[in-house]
């Protein structure tokens, strides 16, 4: 064997070993240089998600799921696991529905995020099995301030926690058995929009006793507060904070029990506190009425962060397309200790541009809700067009985009009413993004009818950029100079990514570059090489 063949052989052996080791790695959330990535088989992964409707994860219904999520160009499907189905009688588990879901997802080449519909679903207990619902003596419900039981299980009950924990741990054990090497399932949502609709906290005798006690010392210390009773420490927010404390502790224990069996990343989703639409003087969002009390709403994030370390991420469900609200929520939840992850959002076209906003904030994923053809939201061949256009554009280069986001090289510009021209700053190079067409000389860009133009620019090298967008024109320039001044476009290559490699199609020049790189709806992707003189 020649020296060269020995080197090649050793190198490929090394590659094989490395690839096998990577494939064996569990999906995990990592943080580096202040940025997050969901690592799947050793590489940053971008979740182009689609959440199916609540009653669609059944074998008989799944055939109505795949065509819609495929038409949307999603790479990951979020689907529920129902406690009432997997544990119909206490301690007896039936995973046939989960097995079918995992097998069907695999055969359709989708990853899965599984949603544990356990103790809580939208601030209620509707997915608890009948043996729990029918035995309130053993599995107590919350008691409202009027002394009445409501259809929410108490977070202060050890029996409730034990029952949920046991079921979730059994689910995770089963997933390890069926998916320990394939990693079809990427992560778990623990409960669904946990919290209480119907009361701000539990007023049962047991909870009342706890409420009168001192706030646990470790919790007060973690929040940098002075010791005292719940009322003394938290004043007007005492009831809600008390609920959030016991609930986050409960969910944390469920997640930890699951991780002990199979350590997938775990997150919670949040029914947000929205500003009510009534008269301004009534704009007070009441916990337990306007949203489930105890969830990780905007002002309770800190409580959950200090009290639920087994929860890797908190993801807001965003159903309001007001740009101020949407972008504010991305900023509120995208924190040094929490990645941007949007587990649910509206499927309408008005929500599509926020996918680009999330990418610009380093999101690990994004997932519109209600994506299947069960006639609840869509039927037949219908699918969410705006989101599908995004995913069709980004899907072929999702690995590249995830890598660039994690490296801090990717920026976006998203149109807003009155903000039809925006700057993206890469230091030595800047890009002016102008939204809407036609763009006449001597006039401001017209913007788009729905104010939803979007562009993505990522730096590949000192003078090299990846550029794409929808209803946007992108023109590079040096700081303080106009496009074309003391700079050249060396070449602007149109191409596409196929299995991670860039395939060149043609060079753009002349009208295709003289007024910026124009992206309408044709899904073009450009590698542009610049120079200065
Ligand atoms: C949010 C919940 O998390 C989903 O399960 C579903 O009920 C949607 N709301 C419906 O809009």
What proportion of the residues form beta strands (DSSP E)?
25-35%
Strand order of the largest sheet: 4-5-6-9-10-11-12-13
Helix vs. strand class:
alpha/beta
- Approximate shape: globular
Radius of gyration: 25 Å
Share of helix, binned: 25-40%
Overall pLDDT confidence: 95
Task: Count every helix, treating DSSP H or I runs of 4 or more residues as helices.
Answer: 16
Distance between the termini: 51 Å
Bound molecules: (2R,3S,4R,5S)-2-(hydroxymethyl)piperidine-3,4,5-triol
The low-confidence parts are 1-20
**Number of strand segments:** 23
**Sheet of most strands:** 8 strands, parallel, barrel
Summarize the structure.
The chain has helices spanning 3-24, 66-71, 83-86, 96-107, 130-133, 158-179, 205-212, 217-222, 230-234, 238-261, 301-307, 323-333, 353-360, 385-394, 398-406, 511-514, and strands at 28-32, 35-40, 43-45, 47-51, 76-82, 111-121, 141-143, 149-153, 185-192, 266-271, 313-318, 341-345, 365-368, 410-414, 421-425, 430-435, 454-461, 464-470, 472-477, 487-498, 501-508, 517-519, 525-532. By secondary structure, it is of the alpha/beta class.
């Amino acid at each position: 064997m020649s020296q060269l063949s020995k080197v090649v052989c050793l190198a490929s052996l090394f590659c094989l070993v490395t690839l096998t080791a990577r494939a064996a790695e569990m999906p995990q959330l990592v943080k580096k240089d202040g940025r997050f990535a969901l690592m799947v088989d050793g590489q940053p992964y971008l979740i182009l998600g689609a959440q199916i409707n609540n009653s669609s994860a059944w074998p008989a219904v799944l055939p109505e799921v795949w065509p819609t999520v495929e038409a949307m160009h999603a790479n990951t499907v979020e689907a529920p696991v129902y406690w009432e189905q997997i544990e119909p009688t206490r301690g007896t588990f039936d995973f046939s529905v989960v097995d079918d879901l995992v097998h069907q997802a695999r055969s359709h080449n989708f990853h899965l995020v599984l949603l544990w519909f356990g103790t809580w679903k939208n601030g209620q207990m509707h997915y608890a099995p009948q043996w729990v619902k029918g035995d309130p003596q053993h599995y107590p419900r919350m008691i409202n301030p009027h002394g009445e039981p409501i259809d929410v299980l108490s977070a202060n009950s050890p029996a409730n926690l034990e029952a949920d924990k046991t079921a979730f741990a059994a689910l995770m054990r089963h997933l390890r058995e069926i998916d320990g090497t394939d990693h079809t399932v990427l992560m778990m949502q623990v409960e669904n929009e946990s919290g209480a609709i119907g009361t701000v906290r539990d007023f049962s005798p047991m909870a009342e006793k706890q409420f009168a006690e001192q706030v646990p010392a470790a919790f007060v210390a973690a929040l940098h507060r002075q010791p005292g009773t719940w009322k003394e420490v938290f004043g007007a927010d005492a009831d809600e904070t008390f609920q959030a404390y016991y609930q986050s502790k409960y969910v944390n224990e469920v997640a930890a029990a699951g991780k002990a069996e199979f350590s997938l990343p775990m997150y919670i989703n949040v029914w947000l506190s929205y500003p009510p639409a009534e008269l301004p003087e009534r704009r007070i969002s009441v916990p337990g009425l306007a949203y489930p009390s105890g969830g990780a709403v905007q002002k309770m994030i800190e409580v959950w962060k200090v009290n639920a370390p087994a929860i890797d991420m908190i993801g807001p469900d965003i159903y309001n397309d007001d740009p101020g609200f949407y972008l504010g929520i991305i900023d509120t939840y995208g924190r040094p200790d929490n990645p941007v992850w949007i587990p649910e959002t509206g499927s309408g076209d008005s929500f599509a541009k926020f996918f680009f906003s999330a990418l610009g904030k380093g999101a690990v994923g994004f997932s519109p809700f209600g994506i299947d053809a069960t006639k609840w939201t869509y039927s037949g061949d219908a699918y969410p067009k705006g989101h599908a256009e995004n995913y069709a554009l980004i899907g072929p280069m999702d690995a590249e985009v995830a890598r660039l986001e994690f490296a801090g090289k990717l920026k976006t510009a998203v149109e807003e009413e009155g903000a039809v021209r925006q700057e993206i700053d890469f230091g030595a190079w800047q890009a002016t993004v102008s939204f809407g067409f036609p763009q006449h000389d001597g006039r401001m860009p017209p913007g788009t009818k729905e104010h939803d133009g979007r562009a993505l620019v990522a730096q590949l090298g000192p003078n090299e950029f990846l550029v794409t967008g929808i209803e946007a024109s992108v023109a590079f320039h040096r700081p303080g100079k106009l496009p074309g001044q003391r700079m050249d476009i060396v070449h602007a290559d149109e191409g596409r990514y196929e299995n991670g490699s860039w395939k060149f199609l043609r060079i753009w020049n002349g009208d295709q570059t003289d007024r910026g790189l124009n992206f309408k709806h044709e899904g073009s992707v450009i590698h542009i090489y610049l120079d200065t003189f």
